[in-house]
Amino acid sequence: EEEEEEELGPAPPLTLAQVRSAAATGLAAAAVRAKLLADAEEHEIQKLVVGVVEHQMRKVELKMRHVEDLEAGLHREREQIERMKMQIFAEKAALQRQKLEQEQRAAAAEAARA
User: Which of 25, 36, 78, 84 is 20 to 30 A from 4, alpha carbon to alpha carbon?
Assistant: First the structure.
C-alpha cells in the first residue's frame, strides 16, 4: 500500500460536499436495504397470517361437517321416534278396541243368561 501511495501520491483531501454526498449515499443505500428487509418481513408475516386463517377455516369446516352429521343423525332418530309413537298409538287403539269388543261379548253373554 505504501508503494501505491508513493506512486499515486497522497490522497487529495475530501471536501465537505464530498463527505456529505458519501454519507447521503450510504444512508440512502441503508434505507433501501431496510425497506427491502421490511417488505420481505411484511410479506412473510402476511403469508403466515394467511396460513393461520386457512388452518382455522379448515377447523371450522370440519366442525360444521360434524354438526351437520349430528343434525342428520338427530333427524333420523326423530323420524324413528315418530314412527314408534304412531305404532304405539295404533297398538293402544287396537287394545282398546279388543277390550271394548270383549266387554260387549261379556255383556251379551250376561244378557243371554238372564
Answer: 25
How confident is the model over 91-106, as a mean pLDDT? Answer: 96
Start-to-end CA distance of the chain, whole Å, equals 149
CA-to-CA distance for 77 and 71, rounded, in angstroms?
10
Q: CB within 8 A of 5, min separation 6: which ones?
A: 11
CA angle 48, 45, 47 (to 5 degrees): 45
> Is 0.85 topped by the overall pTM?
no
Helix ranges restricted to H, the chain: 2-8, 16-113
Q: How far apart are CA 8 and CA 4, in angstroms?
A: 6
Cell numbers for 60, please give them.
Answer: 371450522
